[in-house]
């Protein structure tokens, strides 16, 4: 019995020793190697995928992970669903109304969990409305790139209801199952900070 308990204890200690940790520091999002996208149900049986090509942001990793922060700023006019007519309609006053509401922002309020399993709770502001949302985040690792940067990578996802942000279509569309209410946010981030020189 003692051997069994000792074996279990050693397993826990070993797992803790090799648990992931995120290097502390202030990182700038590498927009060339990141993606801010979404999926929305279409006609119940399929989905429409899209992305925003214009965005920026920063991540501050604190040694105490729960004190870390992140922000993301998205240029809504850069929406791309691979259909120009649909994109133009999405930008119009009928939906995003980008002339009046050019930005979508996310700012963290709380970080929960460990590097292996994170949740970011924050305020998402879109079309003049702010709602609290939760993103499930996976830390993918870190590496020094050939250009003098230390790079970290994350993937994140979360659900929002488009109607919470006043994103509605015509009465005819809303009356049927053409477009779903729940939107899945899909975010993939690489972020950089300069490599610290030793000596």
Description:
Keywords: Signal. Residues 1-19 form the signal peptide. It comes from Bdellovibrio bacteriovorus. Residues 26-192 form the Lipid/polyisoprenoid-binding YceI-like domain. The protein has helices spanning 2-17, 84-91, 171-175; strands at residues 25-29, 35-42, 46-52, 55-61, 69-75, 79-80, 103-114, 117-126, 129-144, 149-161, 182-194. The protein is mostly beta strands and 199 residues long. The protein has one domain (22-194): Beta Barrel (Lipocalin), CATH 2.40.128. It has an eight-stranded antiparallel barrel with strand order 1-4-5-7-8-9-10-11. A hairpin with a 3-residue loop joins β2 and β3. The longest helix has 16 residues, at 2-17. It is globular, with a radius of gyration of 20 Å.
SSE inventory with pairings:
Elements: H1 2-17, E1 25-29, E2 35-42, E3 46-52, E4 55-61, E5 69-75, E6 79-80, H2 84-91, E7 103-114, E8 117-126, E9 129-144, E10 149-161, H3 171-175, E11 182-194
Antiparallel strand pairs: 1-4, 1-11, 2-3, 2-11, 3-6, 4-5, 5-7, 7-8, 8-9, 9-10, 10-11
Keywords: Signal
Protein name: Lipid/polyisoprenoid-binding YceI-like domain-containing protein
InterPro entries: Lipid/polyisoprenoid-bd_YceI (IPR007372), TTHA0802/YceI-like_sf (IPR036761)
- The proportion of residues in beta strands is over 45%
Helix content: 10-25%
Outline type? globular
The biggest sheet amounts to: 8 strands, antiparallel, barrel
Spatial order of the strands in the main sheet? 1-4-5-7-8-9-10-11
| CA(first)-CA(last) distance | 51 Å
Structural class by SSE content? mainly beta
CATH architecture: Beta Barrel
Quickly count the domains. Answer: 1
Summed over residues and divided by their number, the pLDDT gives a mean of: 86
CATH topology: Lipocalin
Task: Name the quaternary structure.
Answer: single chain
**SSE sequence, one letter per element:** HEEEEEEHEEEEHE
Radius of gyration: 20 Å
CATH class: Mainly Beta
CATH superfamily: Lipid/polyisoprenoid-binding, YceI-like
* Unreliable stretches: 4-19, 171-177
Keywords: Signal
Domain Lipid/polyisoprenoid-binding YceI-like: 26-192
Signal peptide: 1-19
Pfam families: YceI (PF04264)
């Amino acid at each position: 019995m003692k051997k069994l308990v000792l074996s279990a204890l050693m397993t826990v200690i070993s797992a803790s020793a090799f648990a992931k940790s995120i290097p502390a520091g202030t990182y700038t999002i590498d927009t060339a190697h990141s993606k801010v996208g979404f999926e929305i149900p279409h006609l119940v049986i399929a989905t429409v995928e899209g992305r925003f090509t214009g965005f920026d942001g920063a991540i501050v990793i604190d040694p105490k992970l729960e004190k870390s922060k992140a922000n993301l700023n998205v240029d809504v006019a850069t929406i791309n669903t691979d259909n120009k007519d649909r994109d133009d309609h999405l930008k119009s006053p009928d939906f995003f109304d980008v002339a009046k509401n050019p930005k979508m922002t996310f700012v963290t309020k709380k970080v929960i969990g460990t590097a292996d399993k994170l949740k970011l709770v924050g305020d998402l502001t879109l079309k003049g409305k702010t709602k609290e949302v939760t993103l499930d985040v996976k830390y993918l690792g870190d590496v020094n790139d050939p250009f003098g940067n230390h790079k970290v990578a994350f993937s994140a996802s979360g659900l929002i209801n488009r109607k919470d942000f006043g994103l509605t279509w015509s009465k005819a569309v809303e009356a049927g199952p053409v477009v779903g209410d729940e939107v899945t946010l899909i975010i993939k981030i690489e972020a950089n900070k300069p490599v610290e020189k030793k000596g």
